[in-house]
Design a protein that fits this description.
Blueprint lengths: L1 H20 L15 E2 L2 E2 H101 L1
Antiparallel strand pairs: 1-2
Keywords: Signal
Length: 144
């Protein structure tokens, strides 16, 4: 019986000293002295806190970079839209000027063809009048 109680007592003291000297990774036990402790704090917790701080800093930097990229993309899209609007306005002005030029040209051609038709009509009337005069002269010459 004495051996069993000695073994149990030794086991309990071993367990208590193990928790006091060694801090298993992932626990929040603090205030020990041993290989896994420095200055009364668990080394794994201190490393984890630094890692979390670095991760948070990195996440903030990534978020800031993503915001910059989003602003740049928005600005680029805005500039592209403005350049397309300007290009479309230039094309519209060019098309309007070309349509006006074609309209002026068509009016000029219509005027020219109307003038030519009038001249042709006048020439035809002159020919008919000349033929009538020639026919009358021929009749008068035949009678005499």
């Amino acid at each position: 019986m004495k051996k069993i109680s000695t073994i149990l007592t030794a086991g309990i003291f071993t367990m208590l000293s193990a928790t006091a000297f060694a801090c298993p990774q992932g626990t929040t036990l603090t205030g020990g002295t041993g290989a896994n402790h420095k200055g009364g704090t668990c080394v794994s917790i201190a490393k984890d806190a630094k890692h979390q701080e670095r991760t948070a800093t990195h996440a903030a930097q990534v978020a800031q970079h993503d915001a910059k990229v989003a602003r740049h993309d928005a600005k680029q899209a805005s500039q592209l839209a403005q350049s397309k609007v300007k290009h479309n306005q230039k094309l519209a002005k060019h098309d309007a000027a070309q349509a006006q030029h074609l309209e002026t040209q068509a009016k000029s051609e219509a005027k020219t063809s109307a003038h030519a038709a009038k001249a042709a009509n006048t020439d035809a009337k002159a020919k008919i009048a000349a033929q009538k005069v020639a026919a009358e002269q021929h009749k008068a010459a035949v009678k005499s």
